[in-house]
Each structure stands twice: as C-alpha cells, then as structure tokens.
Design brief:
- The chain is of the alpha/beta class and about 280 residues long.
- It has one domain (about 30-145, about 185-270).
- About 55% of the residues lie in helices and about 10% in strands.
- It has 11 helices and 6 strands.
- About 40% of the residues are buried.
Length: about 280
C-alpha cells in the first residue's frame, strides 16, 4: 500500500510539469481549467460581498478609464494567447483610497483599488503596466501553479502520514491544499515573469514601456519608501525591480515602436451601480 502511494505521488510529480510563456518549467498538479472554475466562484463571492458592504466605487469617470486601458490590454492578450478569448474579463473597482493594490485571478477576473490612483497619481501608461502585470499572472497560469504548490505540500504531508502509518496525519492533510492555496503568494520567479510579460503586453497595447520604471519609482515612495528587506518578500524590492524593468523596456519598445494603440476589447467594470 505504501509503495503504491509513493509510486503514484512520484509519477504525479514527473508528469505534471509544463512550460510557461517564457519557457520556464512549471509544476502543474491543478489544471488551468480547474483553477478558472475555482477562481470564478471565489471572485463572484468576494465581489458580491464587497457590493453588499458598499465597498465598490461609483466613480464613473474612473470606471471608464479602467475599462478603456484594460480593454486594450485584453485585446492584445487574446491576440497573443488565444486560449483567453473565452474568458469572462471583468474588473471590480474597489472604493478604498488607502489600499495600493490590484489583482487578477485565473480566467481574467480582476480588481483595482482606488488607492492606486489616489496615492500614486498614475498616468495611463503606468496603470497599463500594473494591469499588464496582473493579467500576465493569469495568462502564465500562476494561479494554477500556486494551487499546485499547495497540493505538493499536502502530498508531502500525506506521504509522511502513509509512511508512518499515522491515519490522523494523513487525514489531517486532506484540507490543507485549499487553505495553502489561498495563503501562498506568487513566487518571486512568477513575479519577475509577470513583470516581463506585462511590460510586453502593455507595449503591444500602445503604452510607453518606460512607464514601468516610473511606476516602480512611485511604488518605492509609498509609505515613505519603507518596506521589508527583499529577502523577506516574494516581491523584488522596488529599486531592483526598476533596474530590471529598465533593461526590459529597451527590448520591449521594438514590439511597437510607433506606440500604436490597440483596439478596446469589452471589459465589464463592476461598480456600486453595476454589480454581479
């Protein structure tokens, strides 16, 4: 019994590696399709709860700006990654001026916090860099990858339980994967990958790639520039990120040297008036 379990576990790891858009090997124990299904349910619950608590913005001008810029990025995403054409692209506009954040789940479901605009005074190109980065997490299947990391941890615990003939340890691991998937951040490697893909996405959409550098200069000044040392965070420190992005911008500019704007793909912006 133990040998069979171990063999299945090892086989799972050997056959579950796929390649990201940058050529990086990814551990994928959860299919991208399954991650999209799970993300949809979590997103609808989260946004519905925000709406019920009056946490969605009613700023129509900002909603239009978000829809236009994000729509151009989505047009490029669909062109470059045809598998995303059927995604339910949407952005929840969260009314929170103190939070500098944005995210994108598997399947193209996003959220943007008004604090990004309030605190950083973003240009369109800088906002495009943010959304390009977040959309790239979804395009590169980072949600499924993060869930797979959680499952890998759980498989390890279950294996230990099986080897020790401890049924409580094995049974206790059953619900661990779902919890870890919510708690685990993207890896530092995934963050750098999203930087590269997002910069390329924004450039193809018609936005100045140098905005990636000015964006992270602003990010570094949030809260006086205070942040944990780089080794304590999965996100690269702003000054190191700026240097890497400056190098990427030189190459990315060749993708769209005239800065021609991409068409705007319809993106649903969820606000206080338009809720799911």
């Amino acid at each position: 019994m133990k040998k069979v379990f171990i063999l299945l576990t090892v086989t799972c790891f050997l056959t579950a590696c796929v390649t990201s858009p940058t050529g990086r090997r990814q551990l994928m124990l959860i299919s991208p399709e399954a991650a999209i299904v799970e993300s949809r349910a979590a997103y609808l619950n989260t946004v519905s709860d925000m709406g019920a608590k009056d946490q969605l913005s009613n700023d129509k001008a900002l909603a239009k700006r978000v829809a236009t810029i994000t729509g151009r990025l989505v047009s490029v995403a669909i062109s470059e990654y045809p598998q995303s054409a059927g995604w339910e692209w949407s952005v929840a506009l969260v009314d929170d001026d103190k939070t500098v954040n944005a995210w994108c789940m598997a399947g193209g479901r996003m959220a943007v916090y008004t604090g990004l605009f309030k605190q950083l005074k973003l240009t369109d190109a800088e906002f495009a860099q943010i959304m390009g980065h977040e959309i790239s997490h979804a395009l590169a299947n980072h949600t499924a990858e993060r869930m797979s990391r959680a499952m890998a941890t759980t498989l390890g615990v279950v294996a230990v339980g099986a080897m020790s003939e401890n049924p409580n340890m094995a049974m206790g691991a059953a619900g661990m994967a779902a919890t870890l998937a919510l708690q685990l951040p993207n890896s530092r490697t995934a963050e750098l990958e999203a930087d590269q893909l997002g910069l390329e996405l924004a450039t193809r959409a018609g936005y100045d790639p140098d905005a990636a550098v000015s964006l992270w200069a602003k990010m570094g000044s949030v809260d006086g520039g205070s942040r944990p040392p780089e080794f304590l965070s999965t996100h690269p420190a702003p000054h190191n990120r700026q240097a890497a992005l400056a190098a990427m911008a030189l190459a990315a500019r060749k993708l769209n040297p005239r800065g021609q704007l991409a068409p705007v793909h319809p993106v649903q912006v969820l606000t206080a008036e338009k809720r799911p």
